[in-house]
Amino acid sequence: MKQGNHFRHKFDKISVMEMPYKDLAIRSQELHRKWDERVE
Asked: What is the DSSP letter of 33?
């Protein structure tokens, strides 16, 4: 079975930023809260 090393170059370039835009993070939290309230 192949090990998938041909995808390795894509995953080596991934970077994660914690909340790059503060206003979008706040808006996202508000939408998640509204969604949770709607579901219950």
From this structure: H
Residue-by-residue DSSP string for 2-30: ---GGGHHHHTT----S-SSHHHHHHHHH
Helix (H/G/I), strand (E/B), else coil: 1:
coil
Q: What pTM did the predictor assign?
A: 0.44
Phi-psi region of 32 (alpha: psi -120 to 50; beta: other; left: phi over 0): alpha
What is residue 1's predicted lDDT score, i.e. its pLDDT?
46
CA distance linking residue 32 with residue 26, whole number of Å = 10
Give the mean model confidence (pLDDT) for residues 25-30: 90
